[in-house]
Amino acid sequence: MSFRTLLLIALAVPVVLLGGAGLLGLTIPVPHWGRDYVLRFDLGEAAALLSLPPVSGPDDPQRPLVVIDAGHGGRDPGAIGTDPEGQRISEKDITLALALAVRDALLAQGGVRVALTRSDDRILPLAYRPEIARRLEADLFLSIHADSAGDRSEVSGASIYTLSNAASSEAASRFAARENDADRLNGVRIAGQSANVSAILVELSQQRTQEDALDFANLILREADDRLAFVPQPRRAAALAVLRAPDVPSVLFESGFVTNTRDRALLTTAEGRAQYANVLARAIRVYFARRRVPAGSGE
Ligand code: ZN
Fold it and tell me: What values do phi and psi take at 67, rounded to 5?
């Protein structure tokens, strides 16, 4: 296929998917609740052994589902800090306590379904974490971490990561390559389509997912306002494996530094954790509220 043909397809596919379908009164198969033209993919055998965590909240698959991922666990402690009494504090314990607090804050208000990638102190391979979100058909994925600044104990504050564009694009093409043998992408038949077309479909899906992730990251900042302290330039992009799900908007929240006295005090007390949990739960709620299907359209 010539480059010009490929370019034409690249230009035509969005028009057909987003504009043309609307004009013709057709609808693109919608995975579920508010996900519009984000495609979903059948899962490979690699994840077949993965055991899925329970989903808490309303027993209604129409309700939005957020998967909260407590970073590290088991023999991977993550960053280590030491409190004034010489007690070691592990990132894995901070992230788990924070994930549980966010879950409880969401469940207390109802309406949102929540699953945790881990709810105890266990090791969980990095690749499993987004895969759990995908297999549960989650609408949002939030990975929680805490940082270390080594000897620079004055460094403090939270930061928010989304997948970098280059990494996002690369993840999309890898995914497309893997999925090219599958005969359908979420009901959109791709058997007989060229590899280029399916690559473009995956790329489009990933772009939409990325936009949603950016929106969620900005909502965390907005909801935090003066309730949480951030590092300078807290919005960051990186090639993080845990953010690579092509069809679940994913954000990594670095809550603070275990090496900083003030951050540590917030992250290791129930009152401090509640501040984080309230901000994150609010951001999740606003994110879902913005995507709610209007009343009467079948929700
Ligand atoms: Zn971490």
Answer: -105, 125
